[in-house]
Amino acid sequence: AQSVTQLGSHVSVSEGALVLLRCNYSSSVPPYLFWYVQYPNQGLQLLLKYTSAATLVKGINGFEAEFKKSETSFHLTKPSAHMSDAAEYFCAVSATGANNLFFGTGTRLTVIP
Amino acid sequence: EAQVTQNPRYLITVTGKKLTVTCSQNMNHEYMSWYRQDPGLGLRQIYYSMNVEVTDKGDVPEGYKVSRKEKRNFPLILESPSPNQTSLYFCASSYYTSGETQYFGPGTRLLVL
To answer: What is the DSSP letter of A39?
Structure first.
């Protein structure tokens, strides 16, 4: 069974500081991994995804994530936070050969001016 | 513009009064899915459809019905809503290939009194 754990339901960073949002997955085989962002009162938008190509994945808005099989992790980072990054972030996993997404419980990012 | 649309965006109803939330996509996607989002629980899949006339249960199907008579539409039906179905609902669609990005609608906020 697929599952995702996001450590930290709330993360606060200062503007300009490093953003690190943690995601660990449980899967018997290398899965597909996704990060989605949800801005207030909006739907989910794809930030980036891992589909077994390069382990370091670059996404939109300066975000990137690294797939680490040995740690079963797919943490999301951004070198310098902007006020516009304040949102809720969801990590999700799907199995090879399937479309169904299993989401983590989300991390709300606050950026402090 | 490629998009997933949902209607209505906001709905207040009473226990037991049947309702339908519509979902439509214009990207010719085979796969469509419904999720509910609740605080602290992330997104959980209700039902999904791999193509016309092919639907299956997700993780939390109780109290919901779906149909897929046309490729572009995937309505969610609550035949007898209850207060525990108060939630934020998202429809999503994608091509039916492993690792494909799912595109989300703007969400429907439902309150059942």
So the answer is: -
